[in-house]
Design a protein that fits this description.
5 strands, Rossmann fold, 181 residues, five-stranded parallel β-sheet, 9 helices, globular, alpha/beta, 48% helix
Length: 181
Amino acid sequence: MVDLMSADLFSKTAYVIDTSALINLQEKFDYENPVFKAIWEEIEDLILSDNFITIDFVEKEIIDDYLGPKDFLIKWIKRFKRKRKFIKKVDEAVINETIPIVNAEYNSGFLNQKKLADGKNEADPYLIAYCKVHGFKLISDEKKFVSNKIPEVAKKNGVQCINLNEFFEERGLKMVRKNGN
């Protein structure tokens, strides 16, 4: 049983989720498992109020690059995309904010050089720029305290980055043991 009573359901905090966190969400908290129903309901409510999003580059990474089971994620994303929710296109302001991030991190190992050589865009700098432009929190399950991973690059750019567990805590999502069972 998940207790949502302590969650600030009217919070105006908006979240942007990266590829790693979205994949981990699906793999660790299976949508079909009733134990995790409240987690998915909370996320879907946030999506419908435009307070939980991702960018088009993340959708592309899942479709083109993710080698795991992606059927659920693709269908789930499309369900909200049809309602013009969840997937946001990167605009000019975000692109302009991405340029200094790419320049600063070009040789740090933050960017996937193979993707760049193949002419593909990588979502990570755009996610950070999107959050910076719009004042959103970034959800990433990449390792903290590693200089060339999303949490540290986000921090350098003034963007708050949390992992899935911190998101659950912030939203008041927790497992509660039933008394007597």
